[in-house]
Amino acid sequence: MAINDQPVTFAVLGCGRIGRMHAGVLARDPRSKLVSVFDVNDAAATETAALLGVAKAANVDAVLSDPTISAVLIASPTDTHVDLIIAAARAGKAILCEKPIDLDMARVLACQEAIKPYDVTVMIGFNRRFDPSFRALRERVVKGEIGTLEQVIITSRDPAPPAPHFVKASGGMFRDMTIHDFDMARYLVGDIAEVHAFGGVLFDRMLGEMGDIDSAVISLRAKSGTLVQINNTRRCVYGYDQRLEVFGSGGMLIAGNQRETTVQSSTAGQTGASDPLLYSFIQRYTDAYAAEVGHFVDCLKNGATPLTNFADGVEALRVAEAAIESMKTGQTVRL
Ligand SMILES: NC(=O)c1ccc[n+]([C@@H]2O[C@H](COP(=O)([O-])OP(=O)(O)OC[C@H]3O[C@@H](n4cnc5c(N)ncnc54)[C@H](O)[C@@H]3O)[C@@H](O)[C@H]2O)c1
Fold it and tell me: In terms of domains, do 177 and 115 share one?
């Protein structure tokens, strides 16, 4: 349902790593108005509210019953998303929810059914689709610059593992981290037909003890036949390594890493040395997070379906679950 030309009024639920960042984006966005923030950790909400000069809501109900708020941005831990999505939909709020929707497919599908009767816009935070370079690369593929797309290589290396409390609730590397790459694969090649995954604990015993992995290589075959290779690690000493390479009958396109500046240094001991890579997802995807909110606001204003909608959240999780099964069984999983 389209809404008028006024700024879209938001509340942010969850003021942790990503919620604080989103709240900042909303506070700066001229077409949005951040009304309030809420976090079960009162100190986190107090700090964010004070920093941005907005109200701190007393609880979720206070946000959802506030008629001046038209949209919620859900940035709380993954296991809270489904309940908050359903409550927000019932209250008639538009929803921009962080990935993944949930860790359990049955709960995700039940949520999809539960919100069907409510005419609210739901967008899932697959921010990488909004990265200007990745987006430009995809547009050039679609325009046919490299002919028929045959192979995709996605490199996604985190600089360091997340904190133990986050790992515990994250659902493991494939549902938490690789889900971005599964979504990027779907963005580039469409639906996925087959998945084969290898994962291992190569350097981080803490992750292993928590039942997670620190390294993975995943092969996908798209329904179109295009082959995709994803490589992930939770530790990368030179920063946050985020690259795309697409190869086709007419050539190759690469979207490389980003740095603070483009200055290169050549001295007696080295040639062509560049600045380090941007370190965290918040630095690397600054433009993408802002464009993601911009797209959501566009959708609310013109009634369009978001580029990353609930179904995309379902399908990315489906690929993640197939990857987990493949890693456990050693078999290729067909979707
Ligand atoms: N798109 C991305 O690039 C990206 C990056 C990081 C995290 N995430 C996702 O964002 C979500 C949050 O991750 P994070 O790293 O910010 O976690 P975090 O642990 O840093 O922050 C979560 C915050 O939510 C609060 N919280 C817990 N239950 C709540 C509830 N019921 N209502 C409101 N607030 C609640 C916590 O107190 C905490 O302050 C996760 O789903 C994660 O997968 C996405």
Answer: no
User: Domain limits at 155?
Assistant: 129-284+316-334
pLDDT 10s digits, 39-55: 999 999 999 999 999 99
Q: Is the CB of 281 under 6 A from ligand 1?
A: yes
Burial of 212 per CB tally in 10 Å (0-12, 13-18, 19+):
buried
Domain count within the chain: 2
Mutate to test the pocket of ligand 1, among 98, 131, 285 (most ligand atoms within 8 A of CB): 98
Ligand 1 atom closest to the Cα of residue 180 is 1
266 belongs to a structural domain: yes
Angle between helices 132-142 and 286-302 (to 10 degrees): 60
> Mean pLDDT, the chain, as a whole number?
96
Q: CATH number for the domain including 95? A: 3.40.50.720
Asked if the model's pLDDT at residue 3 lies above 70, the reply is no
Do 9 and 69 touch, CB atoms closer than 8 A? yes
- 141 lies in the same domain as 115: no
Where residue 169 falls among pLDDT bands split at 50, 70, 90? confident
Q: Whose CA is nearest to atom 37 of ligand 1?
A: 41
